[in-house]
Amino acid sequence: MKNPSLSKWSRIFLIICGLGLFVSIFVPLWAIYLEAPQYPEGLGMFLWSNKITGDYQIINGLNHYIGMKTIHQEDFWEFKVLPYALGFFGLLCLIAAFLNKKLWLYLTTILFLIFGVAFMVDFWAWEYNYGHNLDPNAAIVVPGMSYQPPLIGFKQLLNFGAYSYPDIGGIIMFAVAGILVILAYLEIRKRKNA
After folding, report:
1. I need a surface site. Which of 51, 99, 150, 193 has the fewest CB within 10 A?
2. pLDDT for res 134
3. Can you tell me where the transmembrane regions are (predicted)?
């Protein structure tokens, strides 16, 4: 009969993943930086699980001229859900470690990957809407131009360079996804070799 229990290391890493996801609730998940000749020090906007911080009010003022919507914390329904979602997955990792069953590791991995993909698609859709739905009566209209920030990486938007990348919380989320996939793979391989 095959052993449905997890290895000691899988349980330890599940606990680390769970604690990491709890930490990600309280640190910035994503960072967006803008650089331009008139702002050599750059402008930063930080997305947390429940709020926006940084220079987003200055960014709102600049974006008004090219017809982009202003960014307001209350416009993000995600801020009402994300802290609970991260807490749920943190708890699920701890439950999987406590119950010591491979099935719980596989379930946690699949659900977290679905959540991660949905999170990135939702963020991309917000950026698309933000960068494409422009006010046609804006002070500066460049025909055919859109201002969608990059999901990850760099993009030139007129005279602004836009950088977008995971911050501490986002790095934790990517690390947890990677660790869960590796743990699930190792447990499946161990089962096949048994």
Report:
1. 193
2. 82
3. 12-33, 81-99, 104-126, 168-186
